[in-house]
Amino acid sequence: MNEVRRIVHIDMDAFYASVEQRDRPELRGRPVAVGGAPDERGVVAAASYEARAFGVRSAIPMARAVRLCPSLVIVRPDFGKYRAVSQQVFDIFRRVTPLVEPLSLDEAYLDVTTNAWGETFGIDVARRLKAEIREATALTASAGVAPNKFLAKIASGWQKPDGLTVVAPQRVEGFLQGLSVDALWGVGPVTARKLRARGIERLIDVRAADPAALRETVGSLADWLQQLARGEDDRPVVPDHDPKSSGSENTFARDRLDMPEMRAELAAMAADAARWLVRHERYARTVTIKVRYNDFTTITRSHTDAATRDDASIVARAIALLDRTEAGRRPVRLLGVSVHNLCTDLVGAPEPQGRLPFDGGA
Length: 362
Fold this sequence. Notes:
single chain; alpha+beta; Alpha-Beta Plaits; MutS, DNA mismatch repair protein, domain I; DNA polymerase, domain 1; 4 domains; five-stranded mixed β-sheet; four-stranded antiparallel β-sheet; globular
């Protein structure tokens, strides 16, 4: 018989907003949103629980957030600070088990079936993790404990904030009975509406659905959703995802025409991509830029050369690509830079091409 796995999903509570409230006592107990200004096309990156009571959620426009909550306090994000706190949290995780799968700065899966603390029960590991996170960062985290990743992730959101929910193997069926189709991975609002239009409201309805009818509704997701609806998820916790690319982009508050300004913006993003390569011990062969004009036409331009993580080289290639677009002649709404074709060493890198190929596709 296979050993029952003990998977813990840890999710920091309102992470960016909670860090700001921790560091700025005047924000505690107040509705806080981290993100851009409402008059600069800003969006909410994180909302405190006080703000969520007004309907403020991440990813909504900040202008809408202010309408929902006129007393909202808007804080500009400080990602360097958030990354530093995240590093503290992940250091705690990795002292317990090497099987840590990051999902973002503020959440991860841990396989604690075997753990450095010698704890037999996942709930005890989760309690100790939550306590150590609080002691190290003065922040709270919510945890879900279950035999697989799907159930653990749902469980971690069950009693937020500062929650701890355990779905023991003998409780799985009862837990599933109470879940709606929205709980399934891959089911967003549009898919949920399609399923409900066919009378499929809950996970037990997904199980009972005719496979052909389900495929008509959700396509190739059908088999996967029925598997999840039965509580089956054999995906392992994978600690070392091999990243395929990294990058960032910036939507401007006002459309840009000034080329020196845009080159400076692009240079900063390219330098950040180079620092990411150094941190992750990777080299990149391809630099890609993204340009969105004010009419929302979006193009990309790429250049592949010898693998590098040298910031000056990556910046120069990004700016050279920008100079071969219509930026400066057409107003620009968004710029982005990313690095691709990653490798861990310089063996087998292609010979330098010498000149940039500027016939990249849109």
